[in-house]
Amino acid sequence: MTVTNIGHLIRRQRGLARRSQMDLAHEIGISPRHLSFVELGKSKPSPEVLMKIAQHLDLPLRERNDWLLAAGYAPRYPETPLTESALSRVRASLQALLDTHDPFPGIAMDRRWNVQLSNHAALRLVSGIPEDVLGVPANVFRMALHPAGLAGRTRNLPQWSAYLLRRLDRAVVRTQDPCLAALADEIATWPAVPERHTWSSLFPDEADDPVLSWRLELDGEELSMYSVLSTFGTPMDVTLSDLSIELFFPADEQTETILRRHA
């Protein structure tokens, strides 16, 4: 890539973050003129300035490496597979967290919402879904929205799918990931899925509840659950920076009773 490319990347991310050129320049300690020259490709930023910009725009570690490469510098952050021994302690801690959460479902997923770890309760929810729908690795968007997946068992599909489709649309826009974009295009062809251009404006309509619940049928009984998403606070590895943990909790006593009975 060239200096012009890194300028485009910075300008695009600043626009997504809705930050003015002047405010961002003052925060990182450079002149607005210098930042303007960087964005226009007239000036090459130092690695230090580049990382300051990335930090103030909350850029994920993967994209920070991309910026460094685009500007002609070596990447700074390693990307270690979760299965490697270097991350064995972290992986064990994550699995222990998910297992402790059982009998309520819990998963750990990467930036593409591919499931990397799960507990027994989560596996029970997807039992019976065809392997070609689950995929390898299993993908949350595909499992939840495919008509042969959990979509057919979701009792509030319009509301729940609105949440998922908007998350997917935002992920595609933010990351420009071709795999996510291809998945979004495929999902747009499935039954009961709104047209692709409407996803960014979809909002669940459940004003009576303090949090959106996922209402799902399991063995003829209806479950009602809400989820909590969490990430690592200080990741220094791209893999860990990309990971999210989603824990589902029962939204009523009936759901808690059912889940504990199934366990």
TrEMBL record:
This is Transcriptional regulator. Residues 10-64 form the HTH cro/C1-type domain. SMART domains: HTH_XRE. It holds the Pfam family HTH_3. InterPro entries: Cro/C1-type_HTH (IPR001387), Lambda_DNA-bd_dom_sf (IPR010982), MLTR_LBD (IPR041413). It comes from the Bacteria. GO terms for molecular function: DNA binding. Coiled coil: none annotated.
